[in-house]
Amino acid sequence: MKLGPKDKKYQILITGQELEELKKLTWSMAEAFGLDTRIDKYLGKRPIGFYPWDLDCLDDAISMALDDEDEYPDKTSDGYETLKHLYVKIHKLHKKAYKDE
Fold first, then answer.
1. Single pTM value for the model
2. Do residues 17 and 84 lie in contact, with contact meaning Cβ atoms separated by under 8 Å?
3. What are the backbone dihedrals phi and psi of residue 50, each rounded to the nearest 5 degrees, phi first?
4. Beta strands in 1-101 (DSSP E)
């Protein structure tokens, strides 16, 4: 995929448990042109940039994980609550990315 002149990256800092929970989901991003590898290598020391199509994938992957009873059987667990909080941040960024276009 070739970037266009108006393609913009959206920065977000993901650290701690949010990053741990996100890294558990990289298997579901295998078809996303290296997004899974970028997240696996990400250390959470600086903001990471995502293009709108990356945010599409993240939004979908996190949403599906939150709805999956096998992934998070206990909806009150710390992992579930952390991922839900990250989902809200990613979803806001996702909406902003498509509003900017």
1. 0.89
2. no
3. -125, 140
4. 10-12, 48-50
